[in-house]
Amino acid sequence: MTDEGQFYHAGSRVVSHAPNPHIAFGNPDAWFGGAARDFMKAVLTSNRLDWFQSAAAGLDNAALISIGKAAKHYTTNHTQAESMAEWALWQALDFLREGPAHRAQQDAAEWKRLRAREIAGSRWLIVGYGSIGQAVGTRVTALGGHVTGLRRSPGPAEGAHEIYPMGLVPDELPKADIVLLCVPHTPETEGIAGATFFSRMKPDALFMNLGRGALVDEEALVAALDAGHPAAAALDVTATEPLPPESPLWHHPKIRLTPHDSPETTGTILRADGTFVENLHRYVKGEPLLNLVDPRVFEDAG
Predict the structure, then answer these.
(1) I want to staple 287 with a disulfide (CB 3.0 to 4.6 A). Which of 60, 177, 282, 294 is the partner?
(2) What CATH homologous superfamily does 81-257 map to?
């Protein structure tokens, strides 16, 4: 399928009608190219959609929910966690190594040494220790940091020194130098980071959100930063996307903002393709598919 909405076989023969697929791969081109509407229509009008492979991990998008209800089998992709973990390290290192202060001094042509902190010895609290949390945790522990992961399921996990239940968020917040949110958006997690949450954080801590914007009470975050708890925030997601020009998040001096593009790397695209190819081999051979979603998830979505 081209950005102009043309369908073709193997890159050569253009077909005059939309396909009636029983397999579809929703990769970044499908959603962010010029023919996302045509792709969506082709998938949802199929009367034989047996399997849909998503390049995304999340299931809270209305379009994906619609496809999940239409497809007999729906699989996700979690390999974007690698690039998202690098985003977290980038933001943490910039914070710990006094990046904003150094850039301000450069702009002012001021030569002044600044004392910084290291990841080694820092304490990380990762709220939602799934694929993203684990990708972050393995990197942080390799650099000498201490990682506490919070999730619903008990038991040890790679990259975490300890795994605790989600109910211990208030107890663990005061211990952390870096707090990272990467839980999915559910009725239980909506607004989890509010005024009380931020008041429990250390005044010299960094707050980061790689989950969904709805996890954060943005008004409470701005108020907390102004009050000095925490010291800074790094956000890749916001409650409204694209973020409105009038939002105070754009120009707050203690906020580092990126436009939900932490997974947007060449490596992410290639790994998503690899996930589809691996699952295609499994599909053809009649083997279990990786990252298969329980259909009841989409039924419960309304």
Answers:
(1) 282
(2) NAD(P)-binding Rossmann-like Domain (3.40.50.720)
